[in-house]
Amino acid sequence: MVRTARDSGRTLLGTIDDILDFSKIEAGRMQIEVVPMSVAEVAEGVC
Predict the structure, then answer these.
(1) CB-based contact 35:44 (threshold 8 Å)
(2) Residues 7-42: tens digit of each pLDDT
């Protein structure tokens, strides 16, 4: 039960961080940097 609460809290915190990042981008307070990346490497890291 404690593990579920901890995991849920982490998920909620991640969601809030994402929302705040989008707000900063929309307000022009965060710059987006375009960098080359490998989709295959990202996919391997997820699976």
Answers:
(1) no
(2) 999 999 999 999 999 999 999 999 889 999 999 998
CA distances from 1 to 6, 8, 11 (A): 9, 11, 15
Amino acid at 39: V
Q: Would you list the domain boundaries of the chain?
A: 2-46
Asked if 19 contacts 11 with a C-beta cutoff of 8 angstroms, the reply is no
At residue 32, the pLDDT reads: 85
Nearest to 20 by CA among 45, 46, 12: 12
d(CA 5, CA 10): 9
What pLDDT does 45 receive?
81
